[in-house]
Write a structure and sequence with these properties.
single chain; alpha/beta; Nitrilase/N-carbamoyl-D-aminoacid amidohydrolase; 2 domains; globular
Length: 537
C-alpha cells in the first residue's frame, strides 16, 4: 500500500469517527463503519510483512486518532491550551499503542485472534483508562450513542463498554468481509458473502430491537420529587473568581430560586462552585454566604439546598494527613476541595468532596514527579493542584426522605463511579457543573448528553444544574426536558421520579471491561509466547 493511500485511509477513519460523534456531526450510524479504513490499513501492513516489504503502521494509526481527537475535543483549548495538547496527544497515543499490539498479535496468532485482539485490547484500554492519574475517558467509543438513547437502553446491563463492543464488532465484521472479498476477488454482494452480511445484520439489528422494545415498554414508578434547578450564568473568566463578590453571586442565585420555588419543592440545586470563595468547612456558618442560605431555608423549611462550593478542610494534631494536603505559611496542614453542600432547616450542613478529578487542574498526575509544577496548571474551579477527596460517595436526604446523589461535574462521565451513589442508596441523581470554561462549543453539549447515558445505566432520574450551558431534567430512559440555553440566566422547576431498584450495571459495574482486560492479557501472553518459541526454534 502506498504512503499516500495510507494517509487517505488514516484521515478517512479519523474524520468519519468525528462525524459520528455527539455534537460534532451527530451522525451516529457512521460509528458502525468509521474504523473500517483503519482496520483495512492494519491488515494491509500485515500482508506487506508477509511479503517482506517494509511497511509502517503506527504513524498512520496515530495520525488517524489525532484527527479524531482534535475534531471532537478541540474545545479543551479554551480551558487550558497546554492541557488540550497533552490530552489529545496522549489519548491518541494510548489507543494507537493498543492497535499496534493487536497487529503484533495478528502476526503471531493469525487473523481470527488478531481481530479478537483489536476488540479486547481496545475495550481493555478504555477500562484501564477509567482509574489512573491520566484518566480522560471522554472518547470512550460507547459514549458515541449519547444522542441516541433509544438505541442503547441495554446499557443498564453493560454500561458504555457495551456500546464500544457494538461499534468494534461491527467494524471488525465488515472489515473481514471486505478483506475476504478483496483476496478472493469476489464481489462484495455476491452469494458467498451472504453469511457475512447476515452476521453483520444480526450484530446491528438485535441490540436495536431489544433497545427499542425496552424503550417503549419501560415504565417509571410514580414517585415524584419536585426539584428546582438554578442556572445563574456567571462568567467563569471575568466574574466568578474576580469582579463579582462571592456573596453577591450567591444572593443572585437565591433571588432566582425565589421566583420559582413552591411549597412542594424538595430540593433546590445550584451549580459547581456556586460559592467560589473558599472557606474553612468548620466555619461555614460564620460566612456571609451562609447567612443568605439560612434566610432562604428558614423561609422554606421543607426544602433541601444542594450547592457547590470551594472549601478547605483543616487538619489538627492527631489527624491522618492525606498526600493531597498542603501546608500554609503558619504550618497548618489543609486540603482544598471541590465540594457539594447540603443545607436545610432540619440538620447541620453536610459536605461531599468531589473525588473523580480532572487530570491537571484538579489532580496532579504522578504527584511525586510533578507536584512542584501544580501551581502552573490552569485554574478550573478556584483552586489548582491535587484537590482533597473522599473514599465513599455521599447521599443527601430531603425532609420527605428522598435520597439524592450529588455528582460534581467530571464525575458524571464515569458510569460505574456514578453507580457508587446508587449503591449508597441514591434514588435520584443531581449533576452540578460549571461548563462555562469551554465557551459555546461542543464541550458543554457533549457533557450534558453523556448524562443521559448515566440515567439509562442506573435507571435514575437526573436533575442537572450548570453555571451555564445546559441545565435540564433527564428521565430514567435518558430523555431530557426543560433544556436551558447557553449563556442564559434561568431557573427550571420540575418533577422527577425516585427509584430504588438497582440495575445489573449498578450492582456489577464494568464487568465487560474487566472481562476484556482478562482476555486481552491472555491473548497478549499467547502472542509473546508464540514469538519467543519461534525465535528459539
Amino acid at each position: 500500500m502506498s504512503v499516500s493511500k495510507k494517509f487517505l485511509y488514516a484521515i478517512a477513519s479519523g474524520v468519519t469517527l468525528a462525524l459520528g460523534w455527539p455534537s460534532i456531526g451527530s451522525l451516529y450510524p457512521l460509528l458502525f463503519v468509521a474504523l473500517i479504513p483503519l482496520f483495512l490499513l492494519e491488515r494491509q501492513v500485515y500482508d506487506d510483512s508477509l511479503k517482506n516489504e517494509p511497511s509502517k503502521l503506527f504513524p498512520f494509526v496515530y495520525l488517524s486518532l489525532i484527527v479524531f481527537n482534535i475534531l471532537t475535543t478541540w474545545w479543551v483549548w479554551y480551558a487550558s491550551a497546554p492541557g488540550s495538547v497533552i490530552a489529545i496527544g496522549l489519548n491518541s497515543l494510548f489507543i494507537a499503542i493498543t492497535i499496534q499490539l493487536a497487529h503484533f498479535t495478528r502476526k503471531k496468532l493469525g487473523h481470527f485472534r488478531g481481530d479478537l485482539a483489536l476488540i479486547f485490547f481496545w475495550i481493555a484500554w478504555e477500562y484501564f483508562h477509567l482509574d489512573w492519574d491520566l484518566s480522560w475517558t471522554w472518547l470512550t467509543l460507547g459514549n458515541g450513542f449519547a444522542n441516541a438513547p433509544y438505541l442503547v437502553q441495554w446499557y443498564e446491563y453493560s454500561g458504555v463498554f457495551g456500546g464500544s463492543l457494538w461499534i468494534l464488532l461491527s467494524n471488525v465484521t465488515l472489515t473481514r468481509w471486505i478483506y475476504k472479498s478483496q483476496h478472493t476477488q469476489t464481489p462484495l454482494f455476491s452469494i458467498p458473502n451472504i453469511p457475512s452480511l447476515f452476521k453483520w445484520g444480526m450484530i446491528i439489528c438485535l441490540p436495536v430491537v431489544f433497545s427499542l422494545y425496552r424503550f417503549y415498554t419501560y415504565k417509571e414508578k410514580t414517585n415524584p420529587v419536585e426539584v428546582l434547578s438554578i442556572q445563574p450564568n456567571i462568567d467563569p473568566y471575568n466574574e466568578k473568581f474576580g469582579s463579582v463578590s462571592s456573596a453577591d453571586q450567591v444572593l443572585k442565585m437565591f433571588n432566582l430560586a425565589e421566583q420559582k420555588i413552591t411549597p412542594q419543592t424538595e430540593f433546590v440545586i445550584f451549580p459547581e462552585t456556586a460559592i467560589p470563595k473558599a472557606f474553612d468547612e468548620d466555619l461555614f456558618e460564620d460566612t456571609r454566604e451562609y447567612e443568605i442560605i439560612e434566610r432562604f431555608y428558614k423561609k422554606h423549611p421543607n426544602t433541601r439546598i444542594v450547592i457547590g462550593a470551594s472549601t478547605f478542610v483543616v487538619y489538627g494534631p492527631g489527624d491522618k494527613i492525606p498526600f493531597t494536603a498542603r501546608q500554609a505559611n503558619s504550618g497548618i496542614m489543609y486540603d482544598y476541595c471541590n465540594t457539594a453542600i447540603s443545607v436545610g432547616a432540619d440538620s447541620e450542613p453536610e459536605f461531599y468532596h468531589k473525588s473523580k478529578m480532572v487530570p491537571g487542574p484538579e489532580k496532579m498526575p504522578f504527584p511525586r514527579l510533578f507536584k512542584p509544577l501544580q501551581d502552573a496548571i490552569f485554574d478550573l474551579g478556584g483552586t489548582t493542584g491535587t484537590l482533597g477527596s473522599q473514599k465513599e460517595r455521599s447521599v443527601f436526604i430531603s425532609s420527605q426522605n428522598h435520597k439524592a446523589g450529588p455528582i460534581i461535574c467530571y464525575e458524571s462521565v464515569y458510569g460505574a463511579f456514578v453507580g457508587e451513589y446508587v449503591q449508597q442508596g441514591a434514588e435520584i441523581l443531581f449533576i452540578i457543573t460549571n461548563d462555562g470554561w469551554w465557551k459555546d462549543t461542543p464541550g458543554y453539549k457533549q457533557h450534558a448528553l453523556y448524562a443521559q447515558l448515566r440515567a439509562i445505566e442506573h435507571r435514575r432520574s437526573i436533575a442537572r444544574s450548570a453555571n451555564t450551558g445546559t441545565s435540564c431534567f433527564i428521565n430514567q430512559k435518558g430523555e431530557t426536558s426543560q433544556n436551558t440555553q447557553w449563556w442564559v440566566e434561568d431557573a427550571i422547576l420540575g418533577h422527577i421520579n425516585a427509584n430504588d431498584d438497582v440495575t445489573f450495571y449498578s450492582k456489577y459495574g464494568d464487568l465487560l471491561g474487566r472481562l476484556s482486560l482478562g482476555f486481552g492479557i491472555l491473548l497478549l501472553i499467547m502472542a509473546i509466547s508464540r514469538g519467543l518459541i519461534k525465535k528459539d526454534s
